[in-house]
From TrEMBL:
This is Putative acyl-CoA dehydrogenase. It comes from Janibacter cremeus. Residues 293-443 form the Acyl-CoA dehydrogenase/oxidase C-terminal domain. GO terms for molecular function: acyl-CoA dehydrogenase activity. Its cofactor is FAD. PANTHER family: ACYL-COA DEHYDROGENASE (PTHR42707), ACYL-COA DEHYDROGENASE AIDB-RELATED (PTHR42707:SF3). Residues 1-21 are annotated as: Disordered. Residues 183-282 form the Acyl-CoA oxidase/dehydrogenase middle domain.
Length: 557
């Protein structure tokens, strides 16, 4: 139509290398991946970052979300098959993630090799293409340390879970080049309280699996990625017993299907490209992982690893939201000036950029601790990061969407999908209360974890008085926790975790980020130079850090 001339709209947001244009990622890899591994890591991550920002990957993501998974319980003859069909685009996403070593490969590398940092950087980059398929990728990675509680099971499965080959289809694992793992922990009556589970496991000698075999009967309320090759499942050997952990394959070692009835797929707010299901186990074969009655202990390694991926995935969602907001405001004119040059918008973008940088830095630092075998820091740091970074993401994404105005609310711009995805990582692997109470439990039972976190946060002591004062207050309050009434400590745990997280992030920013960003972060997060919402920085902090912050969030001209 002659009246329809499109002006004052930003160019398409595509064609970026989301790794190379992210200074926090590239600097983290340069800092924490050893020199003998660094060039290969950068080359591989650059290729992955280019694909993540490409039109091709965007097309895969769109199709995987438009054509959501479909459940087929029976074939045309009435045989039970319990299979889920995915759009081919889903398989392209999965194939790329596995091919980039984002499944279990990092666990097979030597300690100190930087393999977990390399994987973390790859996960942040590739998650920005489409986050839904990252769920089974995460579970596959996390299954490796859990299976090491049973060496014979690890020997059979680990190389498949660490493979760079994505081999979709229900076949016996010995015939497959690679395998994907899922998990079935929660039940409808218990949720996060897995000790309330009712699924029963009966020991059965000489079953068709490697290891001590059992037959499981019960219901799992939230079993994600049900077309995975193998699952870690919690069940009890008697109604009064504590849970045990079992490896449950979809196909047994004799080639027959394991009873694994998919009742329905969940209709979820976000993460819609990924299938999540309810499962009935009826005489389903499982092999014991670790010791009987110590399933929570066996699974805790998996949970800690998936929680770290929650931090990394949330950092990726922040970065994806931020770069879209900056891109839009750099090209959109309103009230006589480009949006990015308007003072209040600069406040919003600077504030968002500080938050994103700190989230990425924390995620990579925790991955480095995993590389170094620093179990004390990862024990508490991951729980603290999981609570704070994941919880901040929903508010962050909503603010970034506002930067695009009405365009942000339109599905084609991608912000809606990010917004729907944002709450997931805060809920998955323990909601806010679960993580906050886990922090209290770790401080009480594993005081070395608190000492490790405070030691890490104290690296930057002596550089900014506001940070020093925050550290002093935190150390004092943590030392007094043991004398508090337990109910009072529980009610105050969220605030304590927020302070632990922001103080640790502040120290990391002072140690590793540009000085203007570090000073603005410390002043705004610890010194009161900020209001309740994003975009409420003290104007002097915007003047100090705005140019650097926005430049580091720019991915296209």
């Amino acid at each position: 139509m002659p009246t329809h001339e499109v002006t004052n709209q930003p160019p398409p947001f595509s064609g970026q290398d989301v790794f190379s244009t992210d200074p926090a990622l590239t600097e983290g890899v340069a800092r924490w991946v050893p020199a003998d591994r660094r060039d290969d890591a950068v080359q591989e991550l650059t290729a992955l970052g280019l694909l993540a920002g490409s039109d091709e990957a965007a097309g895969w993501a769109d199709r995987a979300h438009r054509n959501t998974p479909r459940l087929y319980t029976h074939d045309r003859f009435g045989h039970r098959i319990d299979e889920v069909e995915f759009d081919p685009a889903w398989h392209e996403l999965m194939r790329t993630a596995a091919g980039a070593g984002l499944t279990g490969e990092a666990w097979t590398q030597r300690e100190g090799s930087g393999s977990h940092v390399r994987r973390a950087a790859g996960l942040i980059a590739w998650s920005q293409a489409e986050p839904g398929h990252i769920c089974p990728i995460t579970m596959t990675n996390a299954a490796v340390p859990a299976l090491r509680h049973s060496p014979e099971l690890a020997e059979r499965w680990e190389s498949k879970l660490a493979s760079r080959t994505y081999d979709f289809g229900l076949r016996e694992v010995g015939t497959k080049a690679g395998a994907i793992a899922g998990m079935g922990m929660t039940e409808k009556q218990g949720g996060s309280d897995v000790r309330a589970n009712s699924t029963l496991a009966v020991a059965t000698p000489d079953g068709p699996l490697t290891g001590s075999t059992y037959r499981l009967t019960g219901h799992k309320w939230f079993c994600s990625a049900p077309m995975s090759d193998v699952f870690l499942v919690l069940a009890k050997t008697s109604p009064e017993a504590p849970p045990s952990c079992f490896l449950v394959p979809r196909v047994l070692e004799n080639g027959t299907r394991n009873p694994f009835a998919l009742q329905r797929l969940k209709d979820k707010l976000g993460d819609r490209s990924n299938a999540s299901s309810e499962v009935e186990l009826d005489g389903t074969w499982g092999a014991l992982v670790g010791e009987e009655g110590r399933g929570v202990r066996a699974i805790i390694d998996m949970v800690a690893t998936t929680r770290l991926d929650c931090v990394l995935g949330s950092a990726a969602t922040m970065r994806a939201s931020l770069t879209r907001a900056v891109h839009h405001t750099q090209h959109r004119v309103a009230f006589g000036a480009t949006l990015v040059d308007q003072p209040l918008m600069r406040n919003v973008l600077t504030d968002l950029a500080l938050e994103s940088e700190a989230a990425t830095l924390l995620g990579l630092r925790l991955a480095h601790a995993l590389d170094e075998g620093d179990t004390e820091l990862t024990r508490l740091g991951v729980a603290v990061g999981k609570y704070w970074v994941c919880k901040r993401t929903s508010t962050f994404t909503a603010e970034a969407m506002e930067c695009l105005g009405g365009n942000g609310y339109v599905e084609e711009h991608g912000m809606g999908r990010l917004y729907r995805q944002a709450p997931l990582n805060s809920i998955w692997e323990g909601s806010g209360n679960v993580n906050a109470l886990d922090v209290l439990r770790a401080i009480a039972k594993e005081p070395a974890s608190l000492m490790a976190l405070l030691k890490e946060a104290s690296v930057a002591r002596g550089q900014l008085p506001v940070l020093d004062a925050a550290l002093d207050d935190l150390e004092r309050d943590c030392s007094e926790l043991g004398a508090q009434d337990p109910d009072r400590a529980a009610m105050g745990s969220r605030h304590l975790v927020e302070r632990l997280a922001q103080t640790l992030q502040a120290s990391l920013m002072v140690t590793h980020a540009p000085s203007d960003l570090a000073e603005a972060f410390v002043a705004s997060r610890l010194g009161g130079g900020k209001g309740m919402n994003f975009g409420t920085l003290d104007p002097d902090l915007v003047t100090l850090a705005g140019t650097t912050a926005i430049a580091r969030a720019t991915v296209s001209a």
